[in-house]
Design a protein that fits this description.
Helix content is about 45%, strand content about 10%. It is α+β, with helices and mostly antiparallel strands and about 475 residues long. This is XRE family transcriptional regulator.
C-alpha cells in the first residue's frame, strides 16, 4: 500500500495570513515570486498549494506547516453534518456547502454549533422535567446548563492539541530537581508534600464504604485517601495536589487564557489542567517520550516501566506535542459500553461524533466482548486516511455480588504513516487494503451511503422512499 499525498486546498488560511500582515494579493504574490492571478486562484481554492510553495510561505511568514492542516476544519464539517441531520432543519444541504461554511465563516459555524448544543441540552432538560412532574407549569430552567460548559471546556482543551507547555515543563522540572525517580513515586510525592507544604497524607479505611476516593481538608492540611486506591491512582492524586498547591499561578494563568466565562466552564478547565499537571509529573515529558520511542509505543511495557495505569499511558501519549520535540500525534478516546464519550482528544485528522453514537464498526466495541484484551484495527475514515487503532477495556473487579462493575474502554490511534514506529503494526498487514475497516464519525455525519451498519440516515443526501424494494443497505439515497 502506498501512502499518497493529498492535494492541499487552504485558500482561507492563505488569505488570513495575508490580511494579518496587511498585504494585498499583488504584494504577497511578489514576496512569494508567483503571479497575483495564481495567488487569487489559490485563495479561492481553485488551485492546490504545491509543496515547494508551502515551504516558501512558511519561511516567509514564520508559520508552521501545521497551520495549514485541516484537522479543525474536518471536525467543524462533521459537526455541521450532524447538526443539520436533525429532522428539525429539514435540510438538503450538501457536503460542499458545509465545507464552504467551515472554510470561509469558521467563527460563525462554531457559534451555530454551540447554539445547537445549548438547544439540545435545554430540550433534554425540559423533557426530563416534564416527565418528572404532573404539573403543566414546568419549573424554571437556568441558563447556565452543565452540558454546554462541559463541551466548551473540552473543545478548548482540544483546540490546544491537549498540550500545555508551561504546565508540562513546570512538572518536568520539578521531577528532575527533586529526583523523584530515586524512590517509589507515591512515597516520594508524599514526602515532598510533607516537607515542602506541611501536608499530611493518611489512609481512611471508611472511604471504601462511603464510595469516596480522596478528600483534602484544607484547614487541617491533610489529604485523606481510600485504602482501596490503586498505587498508580495514589501517585496521580498526590501529583494533582502538588500542582494545585504549588503551581496555582501557572494553572490560573492557563485558565484565564481560555477566554471561557467564569463559573462552571472555568472550573471544568481547572479540573482538566490539574489532571494534566499530574500526568506530566508522574510521566515527565523527556523521559516518557524517549521510552515510548525505544519501546515502539508498547503500552504494556510503558505501563510497567513507569508503574502507571493503561489509561495514564495512553492519555500521556496523546499530549506529546511539545514544539521541536513532538511525539506521534495520537487520538485518545475513553468510552463506556453504551458509546458515551467520557474523554476525547485528537492531535490527528481523526474526529468522532459529537451529537450521535459512535461507528458500530470501530474496534472499541469489540474490546468490550473480550475484556482486558487488546483489540487492534486498521481503521479507514471517510476521506481515505488509515489509522492504527488499539482498544482495551479497563476497570476494577467488583467488591461484592451486588456491585455492578463499571467497565470502560480506552482507544488510542495514529496515522498508518507511523507504522514503523508502532509495535502493533507487526501484527497488521498494512499492505493489503482489504484489512482496512471502513469506519466513520457516526452515522449522522458519515458519508458512506453503502454501509450496511447504518443506524440513521446521513445528512446531505435525499432518501429513496421506495417501498417496492428493500436492499441490504438501510436508508438508501438518491444520487
Amino acid at each position: 500500500m502506498s501512502i499518497g499525498h493529498k492535494k492541499l486546498f487552504a485558500g482561507s488560511r492563505i488569505r488570513k495570513i495575508r490580511r494579518q500582515f496587511g498585504h494585498t494579493q499583488r504584494e504577497m504574490a511578489r514576496l512569494l515570486d508567483i503571479s497575483s492571478s495564481y495567488l487569487n486562484q489559490i485563495e479561492n481554492d481553485l488551485r492546490p498549494i504545491p509543496a515547494q510553495l508551502l515551504l516558501t510561505i512558511c519561511r516567509t511568514f514564520a508559520v508552521d506547516a501545521s497551520w495549514f492542516g485541516d484537522n479543525e476544519e474536518i471536525r467543524t464539517i462533521q459537526m455541521l453534518r450532524e447538526v443539520f441531520a436533525d429532522p428539525m432543519f429539514k435540510s438538503d444541504l450538501q457536503v460542499d456547502e458545509f465545507r464552504k461554511a467551515a472554510q470561509e465563516l469558521p467563527g460563525l459555524a462554531r457559534h451555530f454549533i454551540d447554539l445547537y448544543r445549548s438547544y439540545r441540552t435545554l430540550t433534554e432538560r425540559r423533557v426530563q422535567f416534564s416527565s418528572d412532574t404532573s404539573s403543566q407549569d414546568l419549573p424554571h430552567i437556568p441558563d447556565t446548563l452543565g452540558s454546554p460548559h462541559y463541551e466548551a471546556a473540552g473543545e478548548w482543551v482540544q483546540g490546544q492539541k491537549n498540550y500545555f507547555h508551561d504546565i508540562d515543563t513546570a512538572a518536568e522540572d520539578l521531577y528532575e530537581a527533586e529526583h523523584l525517580d530515586s524512590a517509589p513515586l507515591s512515597i516520594a510525592l508524599e514526602r515532598y508534600l510533607l516537607d515542602r507544604h506541611d501536608i499530611n497524607v493518611i489512609t481512611n479505611p471508611d472511604f471504601a464504604l462511603q464510595d469516596t476516593l480522596w478528600r483534602f481538608d484544607r484547614r487541617e492540611k491533610t489529604l485523606h485517601l481510600s485504602e482501596d486506591m490503586a498505587e498508580e491512582s495514589r501517585s496521580f492524586c498526590l501529583a494533582r495536589l502538588i500542582g494545585n498547591t504549588e503551581f496555582s499561578r501557572i494553572i490560573d494563568k492557563t485558565i484565564r487564557r481560555s477566554g471561557l466565562p467564569a463559573g462552571d466552564a472555568q472550573a471544568l478547565v481547572r479540573v482538566s489542567i490539574s489532571n494534566y499537571f499530574a500526568g506530566a509529573l508522574i510521566l515527565p515529558y523527556g523521559r516518557f517520550r524517549q521510552a515510548a520511542r525505544e519501546t515502539k509505543h508498547d503500552l504494556d511495557l510503558l505501563q510497567r516501566r513507569f508503574k502507571v495505569s493503561f489509561e495514564q499511558v495512553c492519555h500521556r501519549l496523546s499530549t506529546l506535542q511539545r514544539p521541536g520535540a513532538e511525539g506521534i500525534p495520537f487520538y485518545f478516546i475513553k468510552t463506556d459500553v453504551a458509546g458515551n464519550i467520557l474523554k476525547s482528544y485528537s492531535a490527528t485528522r481523526f474526529s468522532r461524533a459529537r451529537f450521535g453514537g459512535l461507528c458500530a464498526l470501530w474496534n472499541v466495541f469489540e474490546s468490550f466482548a473480550v475484556p482486558g484484551r487488546l483489540a487492534t484495527q486498521l481503521s479507514q475514515d471517510t476521506d481515505g486516511s488509515v489509522f492504527i487503532s488499539v482498544a482495551r477495556t479497563v476497570g476494577r473487579p467488583p467488591t461484592s455480588f451486588f456491585e455492578r462493575t463499571r467497565r470502560v474502554a480506552i482507544v488510542l490511534g495514529c496515522s498508518v504513516t507511523h507504522a514503523s514506529e508502532i509495535i502493533y503494526s507487526t501484527a497488521l498487514n498494512i499492505d493489503d487494503d482489504r484489512n482496512f475497516v471502513p469506519i466513520g464519525p457516526g452515522c449522522r455525519a458519515c458519508s458512506r451511503i453503502d454501509c450496511r451498519h447504518r443506524a440513521v440516515p446521513a445528512s446531505g443526501f435525499r432518501l429513496d422512499p421506495s417501498s417496492d424494494e428493500r436492499g441490504a443497505v438501510p436508508y438508501r439515497v438518491l444520487l
